[in-house]
Amino acid sequence: MSYMLNSREAALGCADAADSKKAADIVILDLRKLTYITDYFVICSGSSTTQISAIADGIGQELAKAGIHPSHIEGQAEASWVLMDYGDVVVHIFDEQTRAHYALEKLWGDAARIPHGVSHPSLKNASS
Fold first, then answer.
1. Interior CA angle at 96 toward 111 and 23, to 5°?
2. In a domain, 2, yes or no
3. What is the spatial order of strands in the sheet that 112-113 belongs to?
């Protein structure tokens, strides 16, 4: 039997996948009360374009195991800011300079932060 992830579980799964690729400063913002464009932003940083690409690939592979695929990916060629649009969850993977410049956490400062850091079984349950 397949388990369908809700948007919060998908966001937590993205954060876990990013963490497995050693992403830095992972933040999940709950935007549900602020906008209708998406439910969650998952924001993280990589220290090089190689790591940023690896983080994006890791997130894509983990969500694909659960049958979830992005509707759009931008920035993979440059890899200073990769945006992965999963509809209810949008993932932003930055290099440190680009993240500081755009300051999404400050722009969306009214958004609640969702705690993470403990491995969530969400994606594993979805594929079983």
1. 75
2. no
3. 72-74, 81-85, 89-95, 40-46, 24-30, 112-113
- Number of structural domains, the chain? 1
**Structural Rg of the chain based on CA atoms:** 13
- Residue 108 inside a domain? The answer is yes
Could you tell me if residue 117 is left (phi over 0), alpha (psi between -120 and 50 degrees) or otherwise beta? left
113 DSSP assignment: E
Find the CATH number of the domain harbouring 65: 3.30.460.10
Rounded Cα gap, residues 8 and 6, in angstroms: 6
pLDDT tens-digit series, residues 79-104: 899 999 999 999 999 999 999 999 99
**pLDDT tens-digit readout, 51-61:** 999 999 999 99
**pTM of the predicted model as reported, rounded to 2 decimal places:** 0.88
